[in-house]
Specification:
There is one protein chain. This protein folds into two domains: 150 residues, Ribosomal protein L4/L1 (Ribosomal Protein L4, Chain: A), CATH 3.40.1370.10; 51 residues, no CATH class. 30% of the residues lie in helices and 15% in strands. The protein is built from six helices and six strands; from the N terminus they run ββααβαβαβαβα. A hairpin with a 5-residue loop joins strand 1 and strand 2. Helix 3 crosses helix 4.
Length: 209
């Protein structure tokens, strides 16, 4: 069992949650986690890089001079890649790379990412986090009291517009709903701040066998 501290918005420890490692797969599957991160990064890649080949640049296709008898090196047309203004050899076509993971693998990768945060003591549970109106200063003060000064993934139990607007202007802070978490978001943030309701939702989520 893992003991996860629960803090209030003033940074004081008020409780402890006992989490069974088996709920998140017992051990961290680093190979699967790496595979999942690769898939998510490929999906984020725009795939817009493209260069012009010799068939796409402007210019005559006429051979510049005859093959033999001139004393010069053999030369084709102006569009060849060794001529200034010619096409690029092995031109990029702008094809987007696409990889995918089955649903069960995505779930297990997410479990491994969360378990890694638990084992590294980088997952914090906060109780009583709420905002009556969007206040960036309030959210920044809470993060400061919890000693979170690097990238952070704030996980909520449900959509909360006030909390989202309070955190969106803080650098390196990402807000996600528990049901929408993925392994990439969890693994690429230094800290994971989870509300108590969101933590209960993660522990009770189905399909984590």
């Amino acid at each position: 069992m893992l003991d996860v501290p629960v803090y209030n918005t003033d940074g004081d420890k008020i409780d402890t949650l006992s989490v069974d490692e088996a709920r998140f797969g017992t051990t961290v599957n680093t190979a699967l986690l790496k595979q999942a991160i690769t898939v998510y990064e490929d999906a984020r890649h725009p795939g817009t890089a493209a260069t012009r080949g010799r068939g796409q640049v402007a210019g005559s296709t006429r051979k510049l001079f005859r093959q033999k008898g001139t004393g010069n090196a053999r030369r084709g047309n102006l569009r060849t890649n060794i001529m200034r203004g010619g096409g690029v050899a092995f031109a990029k076509s702008g094809v987007r790379r696409r990889k995918s993971l089955p649903r069960k693998m995505r779930r297990k990768a997410l479990d491994s990412a969360i378990l890694a945060k638990l084992l590294g003591e980088n997952l914090l549970v906060v109780d009583g986090l709420a905002a009556e109106e969007p206040r960036t200063r309030m959210m920044a003060e809470v993060l400061g009291k919890l000693h979170i000064n690097r990238s952070c993934l704030l996980t909520l139990a449900a959509n909360d517009e006030n909390l989202y607007k309070s955190a969106r202007n803080i650098p390196d802070v990402t807000v996600r709903v528990a049901a929408e978490l993925n392994a990439y978001d969890v693994a690429t943030r230094q800290k994971m701040l989870v509300t108590r309701d969101a933590m209960n939702a993660l522990l009770e989520a189905p399909g984590r066998e």
